[in-house]
Write a structure and sequence with these properties.
Elements (H helix, E strand, L loop, with lengths): L13 H14 L13 H20 L9 H4 L15 H7 L8 H28 E7 L7 E7 L5 H16 L21 H28 L6 H24 L10 H12 L8 H21 L7 H14 L6
Antiparallel strand pairs: 1-2
Helix pairs in contact: 1-2, 2-5, 2-9, 5-6, 5-7, 6-7, 7-8, 7-9, 8-10, 9-10, 9-11, 10-11
């Protein structure tokens, strides 16, 4: 459930499975049974719910289910990951070279990345609460019914936006060195199932999510229409370009399809941020926007092999090109 991102058609979309999991967690009082300083299986299940909630809210524009809480985040205080789990030799043989990920060193590195993802998800939750409010809005479906979703707030102060920006910048500045993303071309003699490849994919996802959160923040600030709007739009374009570069780097090294399904949320947001630039007078900006569109579309095409919801990105890219050419897309 943490990584799967199913089709948006029908009632059993990712939000359906999340709501089912979260209602079960509430029923058994999962949060109430957790203690600080530990990272047991129960803790990891809770944090999977927490991270997934924030990413789904961004992608589906639906209100947060798990509210932001300092009490919740205090569970990470003095957290240490200890694993005494021993795996049967038959399991290790069946996993082959992938069994290297079960070593203590690699499990510790994966847990470090996951904890950083939790902290970034907390920042995302703060941004969601700041920029959006829950409201009934018309559904995009032909039925014309209203749905309960997030809509942009109209009175967000510049001070609040600056505070969120500082929160995201503090996260990236405090990011431990093993969690930093670097171009995959710097890896040498690593096969497809190498632990270094697995870790690099998760580092890339973390950085992509950070860039996306910054982009959302700058989009909201640019809508205020004050004197710094031009600078903010330039910043947004720079962030989108960085996302494009990372996607291209992963594609060149045949690692793009290893990204988790939650990447679809990132692609949707970056694609939406690029659409206005398809119609600006500046030809260079238009070309970059089209390049971003193709990068998102290509990434979605690779992810579609595993995640049906990638069709959402492909459909939006097709519609964007159709409108640009004056064609009706059905």
């Amino acid at each position: 459930m943490m990584q799967w991102h199913g089709s948006g058609s029908g009632h059993k979309d990712p939000t359906y499975w999340f709501d089912l999991a979260y209602s079960t967690a509430q029923r058994v009082d999962l949060l109430g049974s957790l203690e600080t300083g530990s990272f047991s299986h129960k803790h990891r299940m809770w944090w999977c719910l927490y991270v997934r909630d924030r990413i789904l809210s961004l992608g589906f524009r639906r209100p947060l289910r798990i509210p932001n809480s300092d009490v919740t985040m205090s569970l990470l205080d003095s957290t240490r990951y200890y694993s005494s789990e021993l795996y049967h030799e038959l399991v290790l043989v069946m996993l082959g070279e992938a069994s290297a990920m079960l070593s203590w060193e690699n499990q510790e590195r994966m847990m470090l990345l996951f904890i950083q993802e939790i902290k970034l998800a907390h920042c995302v939750g703060v941004i969601i609460n700041l920029l959006y409010q829950d409201a009934w809005s018309p559904s995009p479906s032909p039925s014309g019914e209203c749905e309960y979703s997030m809509v942009p707030r109209s009175n967000v102060s510049q001070a609040a936006i600056t505070g969120c920006e500082q929160l995201l910048k503090a996260w990236i500045q405090d990011l431990p060195a093993p969690a930093h993303y670097f171009p995959p071309s710097l890896l040498r003699d690593c096969h497809a199932e190498s632990p270094e490849i697995v870790l690099l994919v998760h580092q890339a996802f973390l950085y992509l999510l950070h860039l996306t959160a910054m982009s959302i923040l700058y989009q909201a600030a640019s809508r205020k229409g004050d004197g710094i709007q031009t600078t903010l739009i330039s910043e947004m374009r720079g962030l989108t370009l960085q996302v494009n570069e990372i996607l291209n780097e992963l594609h060149d090294c045949r690692m793009l399809h290893f990204l988790p399904g939650s990447t679809i949320t990132i692609l949707i947001i970056i694609l939406e941020a690029s659409l206005p630039d398809l119609k600006v007078p500046d030809s260079i900006v238009r070309m970059q926007a089209m390049s971003n569109l193709y990068a998102c579309e290509e990434a979605a095409g690779h992810l579609l092999q595993t995640y049906p919801a990638a069709e959402i990105v492909l459909s939006q890219a097709q519609n964007a090109r159709g409108h640009l050419l004056g064609l009706a897309v059905t």
